[in-house]
Design goal:
about 280 residues, mainly alpha, about 80% helix
Amino acid sequence: MLGIILALIAAVFWGSGDFSGGYATRRLNPFQVLALSALAGIVVLFTAALINQESFPSTSGIIWSLLAGLSGAIGISALYTALSRGNAAAVAPISAVLGAALPVGFTFLTSGTPAFIQLLGFALAFIGIWLVSSSSTNEPSRKNSEVGLAFLAGAAFGGYFIFIGRVETSGVFFPLLFARGVMLVVALLFLVFKRLPFPSIRKNPVALLAGLLDSTGNVFFLLAKNLSRLDYAVIVSSLYPAITVILASILFKEKVSLWQKAGVAACLCAIILISL
């Protein structure tokens, strides 16, 4: 039960981080936001590792962390590219559901399937994630390139969950620090490729906040994974789009469609079923 609670806390931080990151992209290029958020995460995670005197991970732990960071960077890059072309209604649900489905399937193969009531919660969670990630506006018809990027993003996000889940349970901050470092390198490469300047740290506090929230969410996710099955932690923490939608509706008065409201309700019911 504690693992489920920690995963739910991770979802709150991730959803808040996505909301902050989305707000920051109103002023900056998405990869500038990624660079600042990754930098903020590195500072926070390195400080936390020193304060907690966490032991350095093993060689295999470092490798899994680097693979997780690379996979996460690919996912974010593909998602940002797809979203920049419009049609979020097709991109967001595909990437969110696939990103949760792959590690769940991996855990089924390696650890066996959970009880029927949890499986029912999984199914309801997938439906909720799809509904709440869907745009409330009428988007242009989906294009093959955008859908392909959405599948790439979802597969990469799923890979992130699987890779970071392979890190030994004794490490939390250092594995995430290595993963965040890879994301920063990828963001810098994109900035060089697109000939964009590194954004001002002082003038973009929201992007730094996004990195802080996202990194904190990753910490809670790893703790949840260490205290429960990987699929439990992934499914519950993947309900973060519901938090983003709720924050947008409260703070920015953005219109929430009936289907998105139904998605939020489905996510809440899924948490109850998975927790039983």
